[in-house]
Amino acid sequence: MGRISAARHWPLGAAIAGLLLSACTQAPDMSGIAAERERSVKRYDISQAIAGNGQVIVVGTQSGVALLSRDQGATWQRQPLGQTSLVDIAVCADKTFVAIDHYHKVWSADAEGKNWQSVQLEQPRTPLAVTCSPQGGWWVAGTNAVIAGSADKGKTWQVTDLGEDTQITALQFVDAKRVVAVGEFGLTVMSDDGGANWKKGPKIPGDFYPYAALFRDAREGWVSGIAGQMLHTRDGGQTWHKQVNATQAALNRLFVHDGVPYGAGNGGIVARLDGDSWRNVPYPDPLPMFLGGGASLPGQAAVVIGGPGGLLRAVGTATNK
Hints:
5-stranded mixed sheet; 7% helix; mainly beta; 2 domains
């Protein structure tokens, strides 16, 4: 006789039972995926910059979209821009928006945060900061200590190359004439003629690397840095003095809310200047992740913050004082 085959033959009853069990198994629950598709803010969105003009709030993300809210952050709309990574946003005097794209572009939108358009940006090669002049000009700063300004919506640019292998990380028009830029290794650069000419100022001590800067006027300002460092000047950047940062968190963005300087930082921290110290603004259920943006919600005791993982929310700022 031939050898019996090693293959197993399942009994007919077992096969039928398997079919019955299979028929009773529930289909996978796809409701979570469907709900995620319906959300305006996705889990993969990383908010990198936030700006508001009193009517709408615009959020720049790393994921190729701008997020827009017309109801103080209660709901959001997605505006796809293609392959973009918006790293900074500013509001101009006419309430229009201007933003810089990591991929060598400058984007602009109308006062409703709509009708986005882009222009190519040759210099600086990697843009890191953008602002508007009171006259409506666009100004961009970034790598290799380059500052570029355009008075015609990006058709032509006036480029200033300071000749240093240094990143400029923050740029602000304090008034129509005074412009301040700060950067790597404590670099400070000033203009007193609206950006036509620039001169280097005294360096911020300790090879300071500024994450953000905020000037209240031509004389008083703040810079935030690594490991929660906060410095303050009362003489237009001629001298700088340490301030206490009780949060101990690095503040990635500085902005004004109700006339008071605020910061959005690492570890989900929202900080507020209280006297000469930066203190935590407590809020429910903070998430321990970095905040890439923050902005005031005018007329409300609240600010809006954003970060990775689709984090975008309003935080109350009311105190019991």
